[in-house]
Amino acid sequence: MGGRCMMSQGAESITTVPGEVCNRKEPAAMPHPLETEASCQNADIACYSALRHNRESLSSGSSNSGDTSTGRDNCCDLEDNVFVATPEYNTPIIGYEVMEERARFTVFKIRVEHVDSGRYWFVFRRYTDFTRLSRKLRLLFPGLRLSLPPKRWFGNNFDPLFLEDRLLGLQAFIKNIMSHRDISRSTQVREFFCLDEPPEPLDTIEESRALCESLEEKVYRLTQQLQEKDAEIESLQSELSNLRVQQSVLAKGIK
């Protein structure tokens, strides 16, 4: 699973979003990401529209309190016995950061807290990490459809309003998989949140940032190596093509 896990003794965040965004409750009309295939024709569009409405309502001054990582206020009619009344973990997304080094991307910071013990740590995940998790869960639970906020094909992917919308959609996704008894216990979800191997403590947010930058540097080096290999392959293919031409000319000369 991609991304980093790290523990903290404090309540720091990389870049926090407004409290109303992090600690709000979605309205009952928003579709549940775990709807059946037959009832989910327009789930992604409806979910995104509801999230945009929520964000615009927040911008106009209205707000609601509530933990976005628990509860069932936006569930569709699934069997009640697949949901847990009180999830074992609280998992709010408490902020995000746009990484500026070389390839630009956004990481979301998730605070994972074990309800009974109070122990908590942070995991850092990109949007692509969520999509990978969603694909794995779809294979594991083929009767359910998992909805994520849609990709943005045009416009600025780093616009704060867009990132707030995306954060809300990812939080709804987390909320519902953690409220589902079987999905929340799956190996894929436990690995995503580092539930079986919580990370060791890190003293400062600077150490967390350094780890993120180290990972980014590694990705950059691997990308460079891949590009070099591609260039080498193209060169060899060109050389092979020339040799075949020469072979053809020689064969004609011999005849």
TrEMBL record:
Keyword line: Coiled coil, Cytoplasm, Endosome, Lipid-binding, Lysosome, Membrane, Phosphoprotein, Protein transport, Transport
GO biological processes: early endosome to late endosome transport; endosome to lysosome transport; protein targeting to lysosome
Entry GO CC: early endosome membrane; late endosome membrane; lysosome
A molecular function GO annotation: phosphatidylinositol binding
Native source organism of the sequence: Ornithodoros erraticus
Keyword Glycoprotein: no
Superkingdom assignment: Eukaryota
Protein name: Sorting nexin-16
Complexes and interactors: Homooligomer. Interacts with EGFR.
Localization: Cytoplasm; Early endosome membrane; Late endosome membrane; Lysosome
Coiled-coil regions, chain positions: 205-246
InterPro entries reported in the protein's UniProt record: PX_dom (IPR001683), PX_dom_sf (IPR036871), SortingNexin/PXDomain-PKLike (IPR051837)
Domain PX: 86-200
Topology of the protein relative to the lipid bilayer: Peripheral membrane protein
